[in-house]
Amino acid sequence: MSTLTVHNKLHEDFSQNSGAGPAALRPLREQAFARFAATGFPTTRDEAWRFTSTRALTQVDWQRADQQAQSQLDDLKATVAHHALKDVAATTLVFVNGFLREDLSQRRLPAGVRLLSLADAAQEDWFSEYYAVADAETASALPALNTALADSATVLVLDAEARLENPLEIIHLSCGISPHRATFPRTMVVAKPMAEATVLETFIGSGGEAYWQNSVSQLHLADGARVTHVLAELATEQAFHTHATFAHLSRDSKLVSENMLIGGALARNDIHVNLNGPGAEAHINGLFLGHARQHLDNHVVVRHNEPHGCSFQNFRGILDDKAHGVFTGRIFVAQDAQKTDSAQSNRNLLLSDEARIDTKPQLEIYADDVKCAHGATTGQLNQDALFYLQSRGMAPDAARNFLIYAFAHELIEKLAIRELREHLEAVLVERFGQAGALAPEA
Amino acid sequence: MLEIKDLHVNVNGKPILKGLNLTMGEGEVHCIMGPNGSGKSTLSQVLAGRDAYEITGGSVTFRGKDLLEQEPHERAGEGLFLAFQYPVEIPGVSGNQFLRAALNAVRQYRGEDELDAAQMMKVFRERAKQAKIDLASLKRSVNEGFSGGEKKRNEMLQMAILEPRLAVLDEVDSGLDIDALKIVSDAVNAMRSAQRSFLVITHYQRLLNHIVPDHIHVLVDGQIVKSGGKELALELEEKGYAWVEEHTNTVAG
Ligand SMILES: Nc1ncnc2c1ncn2[C@@H]1O[C@H](COP(=O)(O)OP(=O)(O)O)[C@@H](O)[C@H]1O
Ligand SMILES: [Mg+2]
Prior knowledge:
By secondary structure, chain A is an alpha/beta fold.
């Protein structure tokens, strides 16, 4: 298999380290690595990867980032402080190159809420069932590679009716000088009945070298649980980031999934949502902002397996220069999933003639009493609106920026975490125009 | 204040304005009446600087400067305001955000200090009160989902806040019920002053019961064919546009 002859270092890494760690993990890791070895990286021949080539990713002999390569603690602190939430007393976990850094982290957990290490989680009775499920859910073997190589994880367990008031913030930082460093961040949220939590995962990097983060998040929502999962992908523009979120929703549970693809030369975000109990509800929203030659791919698969579920997808993209955006959203409604209510919307704004978007809805409906709406639009800035703004005194650039802001703002204003809204508005200004015209609501 | 001389404008190669002349002084209210398709909106869009129109001849001077040389935002800075016949919806930003950006842009052009959000709010309140218009619409996205009347009222609110020297109102009365019409015309009347001129463009004589102009001009087929005092409106109402058109034809023939 060509993939493995190229990826010698990952292979070596696996053979040397698979024996380490908790016994419960070993068979799962071995299966997962075997899966990756047999399947390799996805290619554009795979339907789910039609618009995204992993060629550049496969040409590097990736090596697991090491702890030694970390920069000075002061630099790290500054980087983390720049990205961390400031005004909520959150629990913050900082992973540097895949290693949890307690010296940069802080914990404020209420009763009934626990954070487990991967080793401790492996002792829980639900563990092997939940942990491996990710690998089977997608045709891509990238999540399996994460399972094989992740040797730390954030496992958030919420007891029944426990409530995490402030967000749990997880910062995944890749840093160092190695141009081939790869990390395998892993997060699990296990919310028991009626539990509630918001989890923010921020992916950042430092330095001008290429690096790869191949991450997986798993969300298990028991009956009536409510989980908001926010993904802020702020990788450097040389970086590769492949991520997959797998959510399992039991009866009457509610998931809000918010996905911001901002950085990365290549960013691919898979979101697999399974509505496995009646009355489950999922809101899956995303904003992707591409410029230069960025490639940003959103891949959403929602499976309605039980009746009376609802799911709403709302994705917006803004693409400038030669950026390439992808949105593919699949809604599957099983025969038993009567009274499903689902909607999907993808709207894109192209700011340059060379920017490109591929958007493709896919509906697969086996029930007969369902509502399934979908729509996609792609356009440029509205000339009538530009003129209207200019006639009110705004210079052409300011008017353009104002409309870009307005387009993104419709999505941003609904985001769960206020500081993230502000951060995104700043990114908009930085990327697509000068600050002058943008006037966030006071 | 405004001097339009022999203005010729084409749209997609087709002549629409065919030698239009109009002179307005400070503080004057002029009304242009004309049938559908006579070029009323073309005139107002050309004054505001829409680039889809090709100016093939003539000149426009506004407050001593060549208007046609200026970019749309510069015209706004100089004190021109157009109330659109069809105001544009801008989802995603509130009227407050929109007007803050607009007023600060205009202030910057005029060399005035920018205002912060609190100062803005104070200005908005004062001016809305003066124009007797409710500010509530500014909390909503600009014109999104507004009824026809709400849109026109919102244009008047923008006018009150931006304090133009010349306001061009393109069919600000069309499609309004009598209550909305009263709100709109009350706003205009409240804002009349010796320093501010209005060019009120309408299809219907009804508006002139509420806004009494100093001068009335009749626009037919891209030219002003008749000008007079407010009594001209009554004559028009009685005899209809056909009368002017006939009249022009006999004069021309
Ligand atoms: N953008 C345009 N493209 C083509 N024709 C136009 C356009 N705008 C105006 N026209 C034509 O110009 C003429 C005058 O239009 P307009 O100025 O809108 O008239 P009014 O406002 O008096 O009803 C009409 O015949 C109209 O069809
Ligand atoms: Mg018109």
